[in-house]
């Protein structure tokens, strides 16, 4: 929608990169991006203001009246979704906004080794940003992972992809691969899962009893030794 300021029967409006209404601009990371704001149908000098989100962009003299240019350089992934707005200084309701749509493939590489005790739970996590949003697929030893009911659980957000395995068994040993793919490309990460033997668990009562026996034995040994030393000394004295 065009936002107009009526003054002396002349329609005053702004345009950004030849757009007189709010719009989205698709771009890629890297190359600089120029935004140009122009006052249309102006009969006088009009000061312009630029905003990045809610923050004011500082403009140099000579880049504020009737036409104003800003440059986003370099464009990065963090600029995705950021809105730049050009406003008329004397009437801030006259404005045009552009929202950046920075497109980039998922970045995901590397490998990780995990050692987990048998019968414990384990979660494999991939963190990957992308625009457009990517989808994840999981593989075990280069074969599509067949999800066993009640043992495998998938969790996914726009940036996090997780595979949880409940009560791991020796048969779960292997290399799990997270493949994250969008229309712009794909990334992958390997997880080498090693399931170790379950460690023996000793009952707490047995441990306490063993400690008591050892302690009592040591005390009796000390007492017996003292008694023996006393008797030897007594015999020598007589």
From TrEMBL:
GO cellular component: cell-cell junction; plasma membrane
Keyword Transmembrane part of the UniProt annotation: yes
Protein's membrane topology: Single-pass type I membrane protein
InterPro entries: Cell_adhesion_signaling (IPR051275), Ig-like_dom (IPR007110), Ig-like_dom_sf (IPR036179), Ig-like_fold (IPR013783), Ig_I-set (IPR013098), Ig_sub (IPR003599), Ig_sub2 (IPR003598), Immunoglobulin_dom (IPR013151)
Keywords: Disulfide bond, Glycoprotein, Immunoglobulin domain, Membrane, Transmembrane, Transmembrane helix
Gene Ontology molecular functions: cell adhesion molecule binding
Subcellular location: Membrane
Pfam family, one: ig
GO biological process: cell-cell adhesion
PANTHER family reported in the protein's UniProt record: IRREGULAR CHIASM C-ROUGHEST PROTEIN-RELATED (PTHR11640:SF31), NEPHRIN (PTHR11640)
Protein name: Transmembrane and immunoglobulin domain containing 1
């Amino acid at each position: 929608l065009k936002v107009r300021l009526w003054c002396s029967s002349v329609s005053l409006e702004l345009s950004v990169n030849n757009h007189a209404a709010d719009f989205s601009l698709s771009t890629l990371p890297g190359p600089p991006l120029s935004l140009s704001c122009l006052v249309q149908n102006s009969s006088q000098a009009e000061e312009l203001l630029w905003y990045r989100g809610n923050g004011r962009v500082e403009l140099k003299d000579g880049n504020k009246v009737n036409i104003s240019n800003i440059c986003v350089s370099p464009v990065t992934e963090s600029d995705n979704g950021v809105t730049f707005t050009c406003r008329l200084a004397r009437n801030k309701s006259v404005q045009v906004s552009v929202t950046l749509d920075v497109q980039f493939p998922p970045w995901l590489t590397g490998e990780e080794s995990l050692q987990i005790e048998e019968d414990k739970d384990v979660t494999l996590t991939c963190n990957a940003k992308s625009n457009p949003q990517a989808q994840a697929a999981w593989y075990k030893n280069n074969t599509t992972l067949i999800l066993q009911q009640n043992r495998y659980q998938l969790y996914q957000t726009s940036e996090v992809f997780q595979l949880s395995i409940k009560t791991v068994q020796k048969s779960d040993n292997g290399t799990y691969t997270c493949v994250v793919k969008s229309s712009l490309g794909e990334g992958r990460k390997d997880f080498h899962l090693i399931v170790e033997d379950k460690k023996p668990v000793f009952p707490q009562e047995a441990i306490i009893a063993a400690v008591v026996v050892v302690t009592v034995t040591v005390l009796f040994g000390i007492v017996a030794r003292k008694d023996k030393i006393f008797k030897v000394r007594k015999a020598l004295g007589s």
